[in-house]
Amino acid sequence: SILQHTTFYTSVNRLHDLPSHAGIEVAFAGRSNAGKSSAINTLTNRGRLAFVSKSPGRTQLINFFQLGDDRFLVDLPGYGYAKVPFAIRRHWQDLLSTYLQTRKTLFGLVLIMDVRHPLKPLDIQMLDWFAPTGKSVHILLTKADKLSRQQANNTLREVRAYLLNSYPQCSVQLFSSLSAKGIDETMIVLNNWFGI
Ligand code: GDP
């Protein structure tokens, strides 16, 4: 898979530093601690490409990873960490909302949620910023290993039912970085988005 040849490209903190290229981007977003770094590392087969977060919410960077010439995986800053000062939250809002609403090269959004706490207000906020673009969203309900199969499937059904009404361009699946559950399903979506 092309994701196994992912290399670090650049980090940016301000919108006007975003790289200008004609490639395809797929962005990953999620609440702090939801398991985004672990998911990226699992999918790219790297131990620590996206460093597993040490101080949640502190680093407000957009990290770009390159997969081949013109395809990029974009690691968006985690959100929802309670102790972040107002000014940083504000910066996060501007960065994320503008990126999601205006980024031409952005093809789709992978939204990471802890299967035990899905669809929190800031997750909905992300969907509300991005859905008007009409682009694809794929939700990973991660840490599925923390629930019984039945509990996990119940949550999957509930989330799917909720999305059907409000966000029809949004798909969802169970995932676990620990057990590798759901990787094949995610890879099909990513390969499709990247045009592979
Ligand atoms: P991020 O802040 O969203 O990047 O989250 P991390 O990837 O740093 O993960 C937060 C915590 O959840 C860490 O302690 C991870 O080891 C743990 N974690 C992440 N994914 C999984 C998973 O699929 N299963 C389990 N059991 N723990 C996970």
Question: How would the blueprint of this fold be written?
Answer:
Blueprint: E1 6-12, E2 24-30, H1 36-43, E3 62-67, E4 71-75, H2 86-102, E5 106-114, H3 121-130, E6 136-142, H4 149-166, E7 170-174, H5 183-193
Parallel strand pairs: 2-4, 2-5, 5-6, 6-7
Antiparallel strand pairs: 1-3, 3-4
Guanosine-5'-diphosphate is lined by residues 30, 32-38, 52-53, 56, 78, 142-143, 145-146, 176-178.
Report what the structure shows:
- It contains five helices and seven strands, in the order ββαββαβαβαβα.
- With 196 residues, the protein is an alpha/beta fold.
- Helices cover 33% and strands 23% of the residues.
- Strands 1-3-4-2-5-6-7 form a seven-stranded mixed beta sheet, sandwiched between helices.
- The chain starts with 5 loop residues before the first strand and ends with a helix.
- Guanosine-5'-diphosphate binds at residues 30, 32-38, 52-53, 56, 78, 142-143, 145-146, 176-178.
**Number of H/I helices:** 5
Mean pLDDT: 90
Number of domains: 1
Bound molecules: guanosine-5'-diphosphate
Q: What order do the SSEs take from the amino end to the carboxyl end, as H and E?
A: EEHEEHEHEHEH
CATH topology: Rossmann fold
Number of E-state strands? 7
Quote the distance from N terminus to C terminus: 9 Å
CATH architecture: 3-Layer(aba) Sandwich
CATH class: Alpha Beta
How is the largest sheet built, in terms of strand order?
Answer: 1-3-4-2-5-6-7
Q: For the CA atoms, what is the radius of gyration?
A: 16 Å
- Globally, the shape reads globular
Low-confidence stretches: none
Helix content: 25-40%
The main pleated sheet reads as: 7 strands, mixed
From the helix content, strand content and strand pairing, which structural class follows? Answer: alpha/beta
| Assigned CATH superfamily | P-loop containing nucleotide triphosphate hydrolases
% residues in beta strands: 15-25%
